[in-house]
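Figure 2 data, in text form.
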Amino acid sequence: MESLCKSLIAAFVFLELSGDDVVDPDSAMTAAEGMAAELQGASLEERTAFIRVCEQEAAAGKSAARDQAITQFVAGLPYSIGLIDDEA
């Protein structure tokens, strides 16, 4: 399941951080919203795995001094797609 989660994270990063000349912004939004809706409807085990992999990838990004925009985006991804309530 970890590989699938990493693939989804990579797709979210691509859609969010690619320039308008690479991906049409409206198309990127539509695709990301569709992916988020599927994740919101996933089983608790699947959602938990996705959140865990986001946390691991964000931590790895910080320790490896990767692009901070990507690291911050991945760290906030479970919140921005509604898997974790901001109020929690």
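Caption note: The chain has a mean pLDDT of 94.
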